[in-house]
Write a structure and sequence with these properties.
Strand content: 5-15%
Structural class: mainly alpha
Strand order of the largest sheet: 1-2-3
CATH architecture: Alpha Horseshoe
CATH superfamily: Tetratricopeptide repeat domain
Helix content: 55-70%
Distance between the termini: 21 Å
Radius of gyration: 12 Å
CATH class: Mainly Alpha
Number of strands: 3
Largest sheet: 3 strands, antiparallel
Order of helices and strands: EHHHHEEH
Number of helices: 5
Length: 105
């Protein structure tokens, strides 16, 4: 699950890197941006998604949980074009991650 933002101030959420399969570049960009905006849910969700692609489900879950708890909250556009509250998007990403882990066992 990748997220874009619906805010007046655009933040780089490494969407292009993620959609092009450049996971390492996405992680580097997201971590750098997160240092400036540690509560930003789009950054946290996309970082979780990048780590999920890399196979680190625990790290991914940690970022999704941080996004769900973040005091920062706004509408995000999901990869399928749906707009959703950032906390709901984070919880959805976490459920999807957990379901994929169960399905693999």
């Amino acid at each position: 699950m990748m997220a874009g933002m619906n805010t007046d101030q655009h933040r780089d959420a490494a969407y292009e890197e993620l959609t092009q399969g450049e996971t390492d570049a996405a992680i580097a960009r997201l971590e750098a941006n997160l240092a400036q905006n540690p509560e930003d849910p789009a950054l946290l969700i996309n970082l979780g998604s990048a780590w999920a692609v890399r196979g680190d489900k625990d790290k991914a879950a940690g970022y999704y949980r941080a996004a769900a708890r973040s005091d920062v909250r706004y509408q995000l556009e999901l990869a399928d074009g749906e707009w959703i509250d950032s906390r709901a998007a984070a919880r959805l990403a976490l459920r999807t991650l957990e379901q994929s882990a169960v399905a693999m066992n």
